[in-house]
């Protein structure tokens, strides 16, 4: 990321890698109920078509959270948290932590990176992250989507059981279900999120609107969250529907998208937009602010360790 003055120590790739994963986990802990609400709203139209019901169970993000707490208990808001944290440690570490390294790779070590280079770096790290973390994403979505049955039973009782059940019933490929739409989504998300944050922060510092500190990081992160939600929502809805679907329901993510368009209309692609924005906006703010502080803290600690006097 931009903003480090020449006199400041540049964080190492290892610091960025570990810092991004840690910051992603902290952001997930805080915003996970919003993500769960988003998943339920995105899946709602599909459930109605299956059951033939006309009643809408969830209305809005806070209505969804209230309904879930009332009918399933507060813990339901954190269904899939373990898989979510596993995902962030492997996912955020790669897509965010390796972003600067990938920029330098494409510019052959120079500091000047244009918009095309930044987009290429975002697409590359986003695709790499999916290759590592897709099974954790599948399990997270399945947990968030599952509703407690009348007898108290559940589709999956633990994260480990979910991994085993999916692998047994759907094959190892089932753990990478929705990989292509997820690669598409994360290429879009990474480009919108990281490039928007990078360029907004660069412009703020270039025109001396703010110093390289918390208000600057907050503003850049909010801009990144808003742009990301607008661009990525349609792909995100398709990804969620496809990964949660029963084996054989959709032949591909394109079939899933066409079925949604035919049965529910184009507005279906923006289902759960408000929770998506609330989640992505707040997630970006918490993650980037935390990430910047972790990078600085770890770099200073590393400097002190190498030369304490």
UniProtKB/TrEMBL annotation:
It catalyses: H(+)(in) = H(+)(out); oxaloacetate(out) + phosphate(in) + H(+)(in) = oxaloacetate(in) + phosphate(out) + H(+)(out); chloride(in) = chloride(out); L-aspartate(out) = L-aspartate(in). It is found in: Mitochondrion inner membrane. Solcar repeats lie at residues 11-105, 113-203, 212-297. The keyword Transport applies. The keyword Repeat applies. GO terms for biological process: transmembrane transport. Keywords: Membrane, Mitochondrion, Mitochondrion inner membrane, Repeat, Transmembrane, Transmembrane helix, Transport. Pfam families: Mito_carr. It comes from the Eukaryota. Its main location: mitochondrion. One of its GO terms (cellular component) is mitochondrial inner membrane. Belongs to the mitochondrial carrier (TC 2.A.29) family. Homotetramer. Adopts an asymmetrical dimer of dimers functional form. Antiporter that exports dicarboxylate intermediates of the Krebs cycle in exchange for phosphate plus a proton across the inner membrane of mitochondria, a process driven by mitochondrial motive force with an overall impact on glycolysis, glutaminolysis and glutathione-dependent redox balance. Continuous export of oxaloacetate and related four-carbon dicarboxylates from mitochondrial matrix into the cytosol negatively regulates the oxidation of acetyl-CoA substrates via the Krebs cycle, lowering the ATP/ADP ratio and reactive oxygen species (ROS) production. This is Dicarboxylate carrier UCP2. It comes from Cyclopterus lumpus (Lumpsucker). The gene is LOC117742642.
